[in-house]
Amino acid sequence: MTVARVGIVAKQGLTGAAPHLVEAIQWLEARGIETILETGTAVLAGLRDQPALSRDAIASQVDLLLVLGGDGTLLGMAARVGASGRSIPILGVNFGRLGFLTEITLDELYPALDAAISGTARVHERRLLAAATVRDGIASDQHVVLNDVVVTRGEISRVIDLEVTVDGQFVTRVKADGVIVASPTGSTAYNLAASGPIVHPEVDAILITPIAPHTLANRPIVIPGSSVVEVRPLDTGRQFDLFVTFDGQTGRKLGASDVVQVTRANVPVRLVSSTSRTYFDTLREKLGWGER
Q: Are residues 72 and 173 in the same domain?
């Protein structure tokens, strides 16, 4: 795919990115490539006269998305790209510690950009999940996520009861702090903190992981990526607030009869990978494998 227009999004308030934003724009324009900044990013860089679009709109107008910040910033943009139905590649540059998603360092920015523009970059497809809240048989509040959909309790420190089904078949009743439904990419996020398994992102699967289950019999399970997962609250006579969150970015309170439905999204997201680091290199660095 020819890259003629690059969208640039930086983490909100990341002042350290400002000079790099200006340099990146100059580098791209010197190669005849048009740049469009996200509105807040233009303000951050002091380029108020630069063409700018909202985060929701920018994905539909560019051929490549350059994201500067951390995994949270990339998650938000990946969801927007997925919701747009397009499969433009995303190049994520990390400004903190190396991220699982933003795996390109600042020193690697221009070699990675050059590879993405010339078509020689390693671009990996990551499966997205589509989530909806079903009430009275009607699906609403639909979201696309890269990492996970989480059903959890409110602030009251008591366990909640949830029923999990896969393709209409009863799987288990979970008495826990909540349930994580994750993609393979999300296996190294909240799922990992909840003692779920690490699944390579190229595996076509969905993960279901209870959060702090009340019984050791409740264990994570990996199911086919084509499955339809439903998580529903059980009426136990106790009144607790339940919430569903999407990639930790947005969320909503659940009603007593609501069902959270999760499936594989129709379109994957495409992430530009480091030219010098593999997925396993990132795992070793982030998890400290082999250290004494």
A: no
